[in-house]
């Protein structure tokens, strides 16, 4: 039986969350809260996440955001600060999946196109599609069922090695330097 490249090597067809994304207004303050309350850290801060081709609601868009990733138990957490969206209406569509706080859950898949079509067929329309610079992902509207968006991310070496680094930094963390800048 074929296995998905998911945490724990679960069977294909079983969706295991890779990470949860939270929209924040103050990234350092949010990271400190996660650390103080849940002991999560350190966060690897990616100051400008690249994407060459982004569509929101089927229309071309530009986005500039900062993300910070940390290990949280067997999976990961992403704190995301949106700096700019063009056109501004694209940000409203993106934010509609969840304002400040929980926004979307990410699943790693072998075929973003096929999984995206499957989600569309199940009634979860695609809100965001991004490709380029090692990124191939789609975010679907899962609010009616789950209360937040559903991201499907193409599995690739760059993605896997980045999260391997997040895991390694968490394992050896001495409690110092909660936010660490890192590029993909």
- Number of spatially distinct domains: 1
N- to C-terminal distance: 33 Å
User: Roughly what fraction of the amino acids lie in strands?
Assistant: 35-45%
CATH superfamily: 2,3-Dihydroxybiphenyl 1,2-Dioxygenase, domain 1
Multimer state: single chain
Tell me the radius of gyration. Answer: 16 Å
| Count of runs of 4 or more consecutive helical residues | 5
CATH class placement: Alpha Beta
Main beta-sheet strand count, sense and barrel state:
11 strands, mixed
Shape: globular
Can you write the helix and strand succession as a string? EHEEEEEHEHEEHEHE
In round numbers, the mean pLDDT is 84
CATH architecture: Roll
Please bin the fraction of helical residues.
25-40%
Low-pLDDT regions: 1-12
CATH fold descriptor: 2,3-Dihydroxybiphenyl 1,2-Dioxygenase, domain 1
Biggest sheet: strands side by side, in what order? 4-3-8-9-10-7-1-6-5-2-11
Question: How many strands in all?
Answer: 11
Secondary-structure-based class equals: alpha+beta
Give the key terms:
alpha+beta, 2,3-Dihydroxybiphenyl 1,2-Dioxygenase, domain 1, 5 helices, 38% strand
In short:
The chain has 184 residues and is α+β, with helices and mostly antiparallel strands. It has five helices and eleven strands.
What does this structure look like?
By secondary structure, the chain is α+β, with helices and mostly antiparallel strands. It has a single domain, classed as 2,3-Dihydroxybiphenyl 1,2-Dioxygenase, domain 1. The protein is built from five helices and eleven strands; from the N terminus they run E-H-E-E-E-E-E-H-E-H-E-E-H-E-H-E. It has helices at 27-38, 88-95, 112-121, 143-146, 157-171; strands at residues 19-23, 43-46, 53-56, 59-60, 62-72, 75-86, 101-109, 126-132, 135-140, 149-154, 179-181. Strands 4-3-8-9-10-7-1-6-5-2-11 form an eleven-stranded mixed β-sheet. It is globular. It starts with 18 loop residues before the first strand and ends with a strand. Mean pLDDT is 84; it is low at 1-12.
């Amino acid at each position: 039986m074929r296995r998905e490249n998911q945490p724990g090597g679960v069977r294909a067809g079983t969706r295991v969350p890779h990470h949860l994304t939270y929209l924040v207004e103050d990234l350092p303050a949010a990271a400190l809260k996660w650390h103080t309350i849940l002991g999560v850290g350190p966060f690897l801060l990616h100051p400008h996440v690249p994407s060459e081709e982004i569509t929101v609601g089927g229309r071309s868009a530009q986005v500039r955001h900062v993300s910070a990733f940390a290990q949280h138990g067997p999976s990961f957490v992403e704190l995301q600060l949106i700096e700019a969206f063009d056109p501004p209406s694209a940000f409203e569509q993106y934010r509609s999946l969840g304002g400040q706080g929980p926004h979307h859950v990410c699943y790693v898949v072998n075929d973003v196109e096929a999984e995206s079509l499957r989600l569309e067929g199940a009634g979860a329309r695609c809100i965001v599609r991004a490709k380029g610079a090692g990124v191939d992902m789609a975010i679907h509207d899962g609010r009616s069922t789950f209360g937040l968006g559903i991201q499907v991310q193409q599995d690739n070496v760059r993605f896997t090695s980045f999260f391997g680094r997040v895991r390694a930094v968490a394992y050896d963390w001495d409690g110092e330097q909660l936010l660490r800048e890192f590029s993909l």
